[in-house]
Structures are given as structure tokens and as C-alpha cells.
Design brief:
twelve-stranded antiparallel beta barrel; globular; 13 strands
Length: 357
């Protein structure tokens, strides 16, 4: 139902992106051009671990995995994602050429597609109408079309996002339907959620893999990253770094995250029978626009709060690759996103399972 409605909202929408979004799109394009090119390479240990099957990923993020007291549904309350990543051989030649041109040289290219649903609620979900000074109810459902370009030392990801924000994203049905299934109480304010409007955006990011030595057969590396996105859902710039300790670190570029978190993406190639690592790090986000806080992009006179222009995150977790399956878990602690947000650092868990078949 959501995707049937999605087409109608895109066709009928007469809104235009804001000027700051158009300017940010230019900035995102300049981001990758400004970053230094890295040397091209074949995939690590390609002869022993060929990319002969696409990768399927299921990921869930939820505030129920949290140390906050009180209701488990608040702020960024749920994220779901189902993704497909091609093998290098399945990448269309034209897209591979585009990736090489943008990234500054040849490398290993893949295409990816995922469906993502993200839900947001206020802290108190049992009052109606909701508190006008708290985060509005909002949901968006989008498809992300990505191009990945890998070298030995860096991964570049370009993503086009298209979808819908509002009731057509089926946020109420997803959350209250699940609550009904497990015998929990329904959230009462979804009737006041942000109205339907198109969701679109462009994201460009690069993550570097910098080996930093090892000890006793255990490796260490650092994953610095830059990312920018511009669109009707969110316009921001992000920078961060992750420290990893483990074995087989050249198998991937870190754990995946649901946007807007900085992500290592879904592609991986195991370079030994058992790959494992623990990690920790953080990022900073300069946020120019967030439709879920600002009250939408194309519609006016909707519930909104005063967002904060800077958001910081700390994260820690673990990743394992065994028999072609990768499992990662990330715990994220996030500073306040809007004025008046309660509860200190907001935190949520993220679990991703990927398999090749």
C-alpha cells in the first residue's frame, strides 16, 4: 500500500526543494572531488574469497535497546532496512565508469538497493494531542539506490534516495501493529503525524581504512569518514572516525548503519575463515535541515520543534564474519537533537545480519 501511494504523492506534488537544499547538493558533489584519490587495487585476497554471490542484509535499529528509563518508544524509535548488494560482475559498465571518474581511479564497483522505514515519536506517546514542544510523530519510507567503489584503502558510496514522508510510510500501522502482536499498548498520537510529502535526497560519503599495527596476531586500524547529504528529509555534513581491534580487518569497512548514521555499508569479502572485530568511535553532524524536526519540507503549519544545528554521536560494537555470514551490533549514544529534549544522551541499538546467496 505504501508504494502505491508513494507514486501518487510524487506525481501530484507541486512543492519545490528549498534553496538551501539545492546549495547543499552542490556541496555534496564537491565533497568527493575535494577528497584525495587513493590507489586502485584488487579486492583483498580475491583468489581465496571471490565475490561470487550478491549480499542480502536485514537491519533493525530500536530505542528499546536503551539505558533510558520510562517508555521505550521515544524520539528515533525504530528503523528497519532490507538491502541487496550486487557482486562486482553484476555492476553495469556505465555505472562502474561513473564510479571510477568520481573516485579518481579504477577499483571494485558494486550497486546496492535497500528499502528503509524510520519512525519517530515524542517522549510521551500516551497523550493526545501530543505535546507541541516535543518531537512530532513522523515516519518515512524510502528506497536507496547506491553505487559503491572500493580500493584497498577507501570506500566511496553515492546514494540516491526516493520515497515518502507521512502516513503513506505506514508508520502507525508498523508500530501499533507490532504492539498489538506482543500485547503492548498502542501509541495514541499518530493521527497528528507529519503530512504526506515526497522524500528525496542525494548522499555522498567516503570512508578510509588506515592500518595502525597489531600485537599477538591481532590487528588494529582506524576508519576516518566524511559524508554529506542534501534533500527533503535531511541536509547535513558529517565527519567521524572508528577504531577497530580484531582479525581480518581488511574484509570490510566497518559496521553498517541506517541513514543518517555514517555507515561502512553492506559489502564485505572475508579474507580468513573467521573475521572478528570490536570497535568504538564517534562522529559530529552539522544539520541544516531535518524534516522530522522542522515539520516537513513542502508542507507548512505542521508540528515542529527547534532543532539543534550540531549533533554528536559515540558508538561501540562488534562485528563477525563466519561461513559467508556477517553479523554486526552497534550501540549508539547521541546528543540532543532539539531544544527541550529530555533524558540526557539518547541511545539505541543496531543489529545487522548479512548473507551471500
Amino acid at each position: 500500500m505504501a508504494f502505491v501511494n508513494l507514486a501518487r504523492y510524487w506525481i501530484n506534488s507541486s512543492g519545490r526543494p528549498m534553496h538551501r537544499t539545492r546549495m547543499a547538493l552542490l556541496g555534496v558533489a564537491l565533497l568527493l572531488g575535494a577528497t584525495p584519490a587513493v590507489r586502485a587495487a584488487s579486492p583483498p585476497n580475491a583468489a581465496s574469497s571471490p565475490d561470487d554471490a550478491p549480499i542480502w542484509t536485514f537491519q533493525v535499529e530500536n530505542d528499546a535497546v536503551s539505558t533510558l528509563s520510562g517508555t521505550s518508544d521515544q524520539y528515533y524509535t525504530s528503523g528497519l532496512r532490507l538491502g541487496f548488494t550486487s557482486t562486482p560482475a553484476q555492476t553495469p559498465h556505465g555505472l562502474a565508469g561513473l564510479a571510477n571518474a568520481i573516485s579518481g581511479g579504477p577499483g571494485i564497483d558494486r550497486v546496492a538497493f535497500d528499502i528503509q522505514q524510520s519512525l519517530f515519536t515524542p517522549r510521551n506517546t500516551q497523550i493526545t494531542p501530543p505535546d507541541p514542544h516535543d518531537r512530532p510523530y513522523a515516519a518515512y519510507l524510502v528506497g536507496n539506490f547506491s553505487l559503491l567503489h572500493d580500493t584497498d584503502t577507501a570506500r566511496t558510496v553515492l546514494t540516491l534516495t526516493l520515497g515518502v514522508l507521512g502516513p503513506a510510510a505506514q508508520g502507525e500501522e508498523t508500530q501499533n501493529g507490532f504492539h498489538s502482536l506482543i500485547g503492548d499498548k498502542s501509541n495514541k498520537g499518530w493521527g497528528f503525524q507529519l503530512r504526506n510529502e515526497p522524500a528525496m535526497g542525494l548522499t555522498a560519503g567516503r570512508i578510509w581504512r588506515v592500518p595502525t599495527g597489531g600485537f599477538g596476531g591481532v590487528e588494529t586500524d582506524v576508519l576516518p569518514s566524511l559524508q554529506g547529504q542534501a534533500g527533503s528529509i535531511r541536509t547535513d555534513a558529517q565527519a567521524g572516525a572508528i577504531l577497530r581491534i580484531g582479525q581480518g580487518l581488511d574484509s570490510d569497512f566497518g559496521a553498517p548503519r541506517i541513514q543518517p548514521g555514517i555507515s561502512g555499508a553492506d559489502a564485505y569479502t572475508a579474507t580468513q575463515p573467521l573475521v572478528w572485530y570490536v570497535f568504538g568511535g564517534g562522529d559530529g553532524q552539522a544539520v541544516a535541515h531535518d524534516a522530522t524536526l522542522d515539520g516537513g519540507t513542502f508542507n507548512t503549519d505542521q508540528p515542529h520543534v527547534h532543532k539543534k544545528w550540531y549533533v554528536g554521536e559515540l558508538e561501540a560494537g562488534i562485528g563477525i564474519i563466519w561461513h559467508g555470514v556477517r553479523i554486526t551490533y552497534t550501540q549508539t549514544w547521541q546528543t540532543q537533537e532539539f531544544q527541550g529534549q529530555k533524558g540526557g544522551l539518547f541511545n539505541f541499538g543496531s543489529l545487522a545480519v548479512s548473507a551471500k546467496f
